[in-house]
């Protein structure tokens, strides 16, 4: 999943996921792929957030 990402983008993705896991988020593979899409600019954070189950929130994106 991380192939082709710069060290900075990998760090951004890892930090976003790690901080949210500490808050109780249990990301699926699809969630991680979506975070990568946002971090690389291929998707916007608003679309990602809109597709989360009701009441969930992910910090550190956008």
UniProtKB/TrEMBL annotation:
Q: Which CDD domains match?
A: VbhA_like
Q: Which Gene3D superfamilies match?
A: Antitoxin VbhA-like
Segments forming domain Antitoxin VbhA:
10-42
- Protein name in the entry: Antitoxin VbhA domain-containing protein
Give the classification, highest ranks.
Bacteria, Bacillati, Actinomycetota, Actinomycetes, Mycobacteriales
